[in-house]
Amino acid sequence: MDGVYGTRILLAVSLVVFILLLVPVLALVVGLSFFPSLGTSTFTFWRFISLPSTLSEIQDTLEFSIVSAIFTTVFATTYAWIVARTDVPGKRVLELLPILGLSVPLLFKAFSWEFMLNPNSGIINSMLKFLLGAGAPVLNIDTMGGLIFVQSFANVPIVYLITLAAMKSLDSSLEEASRVSGRGVLSTFGRVTVPLVRPAVLSAFLLAIIGGVGAFEFPFVLGQPGGLHFLATEVYYYAQERVPPAYGSAGDVSILYAAITIACVSAYIWSTRRSFKFQVVTGRSAAARLQLLGSYRYLACAVCLAILFFEFILPFSGLVLMSSATIFASNLNSVQFNFPTFYLDALKIPLLFDSLRTTLFFGLMAAVLATVIGALLSYTALKSKARGARLADFISAVPLAFPGVVYGVALFWTFLLIPGMSWLFGTIWPLVIALVFIRLPFSTRIVSGNMVQISNDLEDASQVAGAGFTRTFTRVLMPLIKEGLFNSFVYTLIDSMRELGGVVILATAAAPTFTTLLLQYYNESTSQIGTVAAASVIFTGMIMLLLVAASVVRHYWGRTGR
Is 454 helix (H, G, I), strand (E, B) or coil? Predict the structure, then answer.
């Protein structure tokens, strides 16, 4: 397949993806236009945006997402730079550890943070009172500051994966030149390294903002007790909690919700329109040299461990404690360790094993499809010289405009309105479709963050040597971006398995997911929090095993690729 023919195929694929993305959106608009009162709606779109509470919900949503994204980007970029560009001790282990944060679904992290830092009965607050007396400070996680704190660490893995691939692709001679000219390590990091990986960092920052806008778990579990209302929780309320459901109102909120994220998507596309300026991997070989930190090596290691502590260690420890003991906040001397009672109870939860099988299956399907489509869209946007090729970047970003819970509502309308598709509702396929397109922008950003730094002269050399498009793509480009492809697959698999917002509207008893099952069990039996925690630990252990397997595959793949 020659270059022109290959480009046409890629553009056709991009167009098909775009059409498939638009179908649920059009179904949502048509449904709201012709069936506005479905489910006994309580308001119209124009009435909703005029409500006094709407402005507060928008402000809370934007403050939560933007501020947390700033902290996330700083934490993740610093961590990626330390493990990829410096001689920090234990870097092989440190490089893998941030991915552990993906093993704990955000719903379970929310349960853990509430258990530890609830202002009235949180175990950490109870310990502070036990040690310091009645005047001890109270740490309240059910506030905007608390939500920003937990969200800042929750998005570290995705931002880290995007920036790590870019950091590893840098030509170290550029940093060496900076050091020779007299700049220190931190000055080189700020004046040389960060500008060179700016497309990846900016992309990750905007994704973190959008991730915060679309976040559902923390606002639902932590925000509601504190009287905070977000757009995501409003959509869920009208579609699921209200009796009877108000699907029209849920759709109206979704429209406003999508308008906010469209602005963020537009900012991303504008900011990366000249990303070719940042190509730093060329046909010339360069020796890889690390930045020597000297006596600050152990301080850098401590910084990484501090980020890991709040990202994974502390929330997971809270889950383990919840699942192993009954703790009375009013009397810490009455702690009752009852392992493995809660775990045995967890195994008796109805549909537990069915939900595990369903979750693993749709996670694998979504990971494969999103990575393949994401790689093709990335290549079309960054490497194709055809007119309109950059539209592929816009196409891949379209799902960002629809947070998971919104896309779930749109798919619900799709299956409701399109003849012959209603039979799909209640099967696993709506979940697969939702997750592929929800995760597609993230897969594309992970791959393109690596691909953008591969100069075109490598492909030109391959084509001059007589290789066609297919051979050049598979034998030249893919080995150079295998880090991004692998990271995309692993991230999409794990994040699809722990997704809640995108599947909470679509999951049914015939196609249960693990997160929706536990959310339902928690809502129906809040006194069974120990059992919910035990099930959460079991699921987290399952994901950890998948991550260990991925690490083994990465190690073997890296050796065979040399």
Answer: strand
Expressed in percent and rounded to 5, the helix, strand and coil fractions of the chain are 75, 0, 25
- CATH at 431: 1.10.3720.10
**Pick from 167, 169, 162, 165: nearest CA to 205:** 162
Distance CA 147, CA 209 (A): 14
- Report if residue 38 sits inside a domain: no
How many domains does the chain contain in total? 1
Does the residue 39 lie in any domain? no
Rounded Cα gap, residues 559 and 215, in angstroms: 38
pLDDT at 331: 58
CA–CA gap between residue 209 and residue 206 (Å, rounded): 5
58-86: pLDDT as tens digits: 888 889 999 999 999 999 999 998 998 88
Residue 40 lies in a domain: no
Low-confidence ranges of the chain (pLDDT < 70): 1-10, 31-52, 171-176, 178-180, 182, 241-248, 251-252, 265, 268-288, 327-335, 384-393, 401, 449, 453, 455-460, 463, 467-469, 525-527, 555, 557-562
Separation between Cα atoms, residue 522 and residue 532, nearest integer Å: 7
Side chain identity at residue 447, one-letter code: V
Host H or E run for residue 408: helix 404-417
Sign of CA dihedral 234, 236, 241, 243: positive
Residue 523 CB neighbours (<10 A): 9
> Looking at residue 46, what is its pLDDT?
59
**Full domain range(s) for residue 205:** 3-31+54-281+290-334+343-560
H-helix or E-strand spanning residue 319: helix 314-324
* Alpha-carbon span 321 to 262, nearest angstrom: 41
- Does residue 42 form part of some domain? no
- Closest by CA position to 76, among listed 188, 207, 164: 164
Does the pTM surpass 0.90? The reply is: no
First to last CA, the chain: 28
**Long-range own/partner contacts, residues 239-246 (CB < 8 A, 24 or more apart):** 239/405, 239/409, 239/412, 239/505, 240/504, 240/505, 244/39, 244/40, 245/39, 246/39, 246/40, 246/41, 246/42
Beta carbons of 477 and 443 less than 8 angstroms apart:
no
